[in-house]
Each structure stands twice: as structure tokens, then as C-alpha cells.
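Handout, section 4.2: multi-component inputs.
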Amino acid sequence: MIHFQDVVKRFGDTTVLDGLDFTVAPGERVTLIGPSGSGKTTILRLLMTLEDLTEGFIYVDGEPLTHELRDGKRVARRPRDVSKTRRRIGMVFQQFNLFPNMSVLENITEAPIHVLGKPKQEAREDALRILEQVGLRERANAHPMQLSGGQQQRVAIARALAMHPEILLLDEVTSALDPELVGDVLEVLREIARTTNITMLIVTHEMQFARDVSNRVLMFDSGRILEEAEPDKMFSHPEHERTRRFLQAIL
Amino acid sequence: MSDLLDTLAAASPQLWEGTLVTLQLTFGGAALAFLVAVGLGLAALSPWVIVRTLVRVIVELFRGTSLVVQVFFLFYVLPLWGVELAPYTTGILALGLNYGAYGSEVVRGSLTSVPQGQWETTTALSMSWLHKMRRVIWPQAWALMLPGLNNLLIMLVKGTALASFFLMNDLTFVSDQMRRTAGTFTSYGIAMVIYLLIALALSWALRVLEARALRRLGLREPTKGETAKATAEAVA
Amino acid sequence: MTWDTEFALSVFPELLSAFVRVTLLVTVVGSLMAAALGLVWAITQRSLGRRSLPLRWVLDFIRMTPIPVQLLFVYYTFNNLSALTVGILVFGIHYSTYMAESYRAGIESIRKGQWEAATALSLPPHRTWRAVILPQALRATLPSLGNWAIAMFKDTPFLIFIGVLEMVTVARQIGGSTFRYTETFTIAGLIFLAASYPTAILMRRLEKRLAY
Ligand SMILES: Nc1ncnc2c1ncn2[C@@H]1O[C@H](COP(=O)(O)OP(=O)(O)O)[C@@H](O)[C@H]1O
Ligand SMILES: [Mg+2]
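Output:
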């Protein structure tokens, strides 16, 4: 379970999130939509501890992530403790961010071996199995630069999966791809949604995909949840005029 | 022509000696400079303001006050404080600290040029500092920093000529001695050619390293222009 | 050995005077010369293409050999020139090889479309350079040239090899006769720092300002 409690995020003087509260149940797939700049990426980056939390708390399965309440005071947790909680979360980025100094297979096994301490052989087999899932087993020894954008993104997904996260964060993972490569990546994600019970937080403009995989859609506007609903309801009968216009604009 | 060969033959033992001294200063200085550059370059990215400030002060101090002044300081001032260093140590220390300070800017610049996404991904994969440096960030930064380090290494080779001023029998000193017997053109000409060969050999070696590093990243080599600009920034 | 502030202050005027008369003079004249020659090398190389290879070798030779040896070489070869003149010549030529690289970088940074547009307008080569390429290239090159001038400035104490009385040589002489090296070299270092650090900052600012 993920729980955002009174989360405030400021960059200098600009307040991006102002007292955000929401909860995601274990195994739930939640899609975040909303206009550009509404704070969707910031939410995922806060969960991944890539941004500092200005105020408030984030809990993962009741465990505080970066800050906790101790004797009525909000204090930062020790880096080592943060790291332990963070390991339950994986993220796939818009720009893939594969390590260019490693082969596809090495990209995937690096963290399982050196962070989780998995035996090499086991990590390798696991990586190959996951590569099979994303349809790239035969490219295991290729160099990232030799792959198309869609293939690179599937490797990045495999890399995140190889850490066996309980929570997977997907930030516009198809936005940097040529249109004809989007389908394969989404297909892989659909498959993961179908065959695992990983909790997923998804930011996407692919509404059909969101409809297919998510249990719930949150519409953001200026750092607040404007409305939330099941996908069918959100996409066919949104409550707010603002949501209707947003959906019209992107469809 | 045979005159030249005779002169060369007569002077060759000293020339050889001088070349060895210059090479020793070069390798000693370069090794120390590399350690200093990596140490200060990494420390410059420390999360602690105090560390970063300290690094800045050290780097600007060494960059701002001329190698010659630093050599003289070590050579003339330290003994007054009771620290007697052998000429070798003085030379290597001065070259290592001075070019190390320049090098740290190259190292820092290369580290920060590794795309932000790479750093963020190491966080997303929960890598420790040492792990992400060793396996992800450094291999990429390494390819970027080699052209800059290459230029600095050539400058360091030239900088060793200063050693003759505090009585070391390096190449410059030997050629200066040779002038009386061999004439200006021959003596300094030979010295310059030897310096050139040393510089070319080292520069070539670093370019081989660079090509290898880039190949591992699947990248093209940078243009001469990009390298020239980066160097000018580092040495100022 | 204790620090004697009064003594340090007393050597300051003499060092500063040597600094202005020699160090600054060599740096300013040398830099102007290096900037002019460097531009000539860069344009020649660009215009001659592959035929400029011999020029490249000469420039590399100068760039890869130590200034002290070059100073001694020129000083004893042309013994009718004053040591100061030799200094300016050697520094100017040595650093022109570095500045040539900076100009090249600036010229390379100009998009191909600029050359093509000039050709499409049938501009003659000298107009293409003067009116189109150089104004843009210089903008990109200026901070780089400034940085090399600072580097030259910090190399001026090498003049000691041909006996020019520049600041560090003077400092060494005073130190030798009074045995107060700490103060003299500290002051000399501070004067260097006071001149080079602000200039380096200025170049960094300039670079940001001039970037398109
Ligand atoms: N590093 C940053 N510094 C300053 N402002 C930022 C930074 N990152 C994001 N912002 C601002 O935060 C707001 C929300 O950004 P973001 O979370 O990326 O929105 P979204 O992903 O919904 O498009 C935007 O106004 C953006 O300009
Ligand atoms: Mg976003």
C-alpha cells in the first residue's frame, strides 16, 4: 500500500503539490492523468526519492519512506533505512536511461547481483527469463545503442522487473517513442499487468491502455486531484468540465 | 652531418640521463596529479557544502597562482619551515598538485556531464555510492575526461622543464649545458625533439584509451573543437 | 620562521612594479599577438584543407615543446633581440597554436547551413568569412581566448630562464638577499591570484552571456 499524507512539494517559490493525500492499495493499477505541469511526474519522483519531500509523509506498506514522525516531530530517516524501503519500488523513465557501458544482459543483472546480492548464475537466468517476457531474449548480448527506442524501453522495463519490485512507476514510458514502436511496449506492460500483482502507478497519454490496465484513474490539475473514478466512468462520463476538455484535447 | 653525429655521440650519455630525469618527473607528477584530480573532482560533488567550499578554495589557489610560484614556494620556503624535500620530491609534488588541481576540474566536469537520467536510474535501482560510481558513472565520465587529461598531460611534460631551475639534470638542463659545445640549434633542437616524442607517445597512449572507452559506450569520438574548448576552460 | 607583515608590505610596491612593467606587458602584447596569429593559422588550415598538414605539424611541434627551451632557443639564436622581445615573441607564438584550436572550435560550431546560405547568395570567400562566419565564430571563441591569455599570464615566470626581471624573479632576488622567502613568494602568489581569478570568473560569465 502506498499512502501520501499531506504531501507538499515546492521548487524554490513555486508550490507544485500542496497538501496531497491519496492511497493506492496493494496490487492496484492507478493511472495519473492531467495537463502538462500538473505534478504527475513529481509524484512519481517523490516516491522514487529522486526529489526531496518538502513537507508531509509518504508511507509504503505503513513504513515511512523518507520522513517519519518521531516524538511528534517530522524527521528525515537515515539513508540506509530509506534505501531499504526504496528497494521495493522500481521505475521506468521516459528516456529509457540504459547504461551505455553495459550490454543488455549486464544492464539487467547489475543491480540484482550487486544490490540484492543474488548469485550471478541465478541473476542471469532470471534476466533471460524476463527478457523472454519482453520478447528480447535473443538480444541479450547486444549493446543498448544497437536497439530501437522501443526495444531499449523494453529492456528498461526488464531491468526494473529484475529487482522484483512490489511497486512499479511508469512515467510516460512511450512518449519518447516513434508511434509505430509504442504498441510493442504497451503490449509488454499489459502482459505484466495481467500476469503479476505488482502495484502500478502509471502516467500516460495512451487512454486505451489506461482503460485496459487500470483500476482507477486520478485526474490532476495544478497539483490537486480534481476527480477520481474507474476508467470507464472517467473516460465516458467525467464529472468536471475541465476533465472533459482535457480528455477531448488528447484523444 | 657527421659533425652532428659526433656531437650527438659525445653528448648521448648526458642526453639519456636528462631524458630519464624528465621521464621520471613526468610519470611521478602525472601519477600524483591523477590521484589529486580524482580525489578533488569527486569531493567537488560532495553533498556537504563545507567539503565543496574547501575543494573550491584549494583548486582556485593552485590554478590561480602559477606553477612557477608554487615550485619556488616548495623549494625556498619549505626549508625555512624545517621541511627539506629532495629535488625530485619537490618537482613531483609541485607538478602533481598544480596539474591535479586543473585535472580536478576536468574530472568534475566529466562527472556532471554524465546525463542526469543515468544518476537517477542508479537511485531507482538502489545502488550504493561506490557501486554507482564504479560501474555506471565513472566508465561514462572516463571517456569524457580523457581528452582533457590528455591536454593536461602534455602541459605537464612541458612543465617538467622547470626542474632544471632547481638544479636537476633534466633534459632542459642538459641541453643548456650542451649549448657551448654543440651550438644553440643542435642542443635545443635535440631537446625539443625529445620532448615532442615524449608528448606524442603519451598523447597517443591516452587516445588509445579514449577510443577504447568510447567503443565500450558505443559512441563516436568527439570533434577536435569540443576538446579544444574544454581544455581552454580547464587551464584558465 | 615568523611571518613579518611589515616586510611583506614593504616588498609589495617593488613586486607590483615588476608585475606591471613585465608580466602584464608580456601578457597583453603576447595575447594580442597570439590571438592574431591563431586566427591566421585557423583560417589557413580551414581554407587549405588537407594541404595544410605541414602547417599542422609545425603548430603541434610548437605546442608540444616546453616554453623554457623555446625561450632559450630564440634568445641565443637571435642575440640582437632583447630578452623582453624574445619573451613576447615566444609567448605569442606558443599560445597562438592553442588559440588556433579555439578558433577552429568556434568555426566548426557554425552550422553547415550558414556556409550553404553564403554560397547560395554567391558571396565571395572574404565576405563569407568577414560578414557571416567570423562574427559568429568569434562570439563562441572569445571566452576560450581569454582563458588561454590567463594560462599565458601564469606562464610568464618562465621568463626567468632568459633573465628577464619579471615579478617572480624579482621576488626570488629579494628573498635571496633577505632570506625572507615566505613573504616575498606569498605576495607574488597573491598578486597572481588577484589578477587571474577575477579574470577567469569574468570569462565564465562572458561565456554564459555569449552563448546563443
Ligand atoms: N526541478 C524542478 N525545478 C523547478 N520546477 C520544477 C522542477 N521539476 C518540475 N517543476 C515544476 O513542477 C511542476 C510540475 O511538474 P511535473 O511534475 O513534471 O508535471 P507533469 O509531469 O504533470 O507534466 C511544473 O510546473 C514544473 O515546471
Ligand atoms: Mg511529466
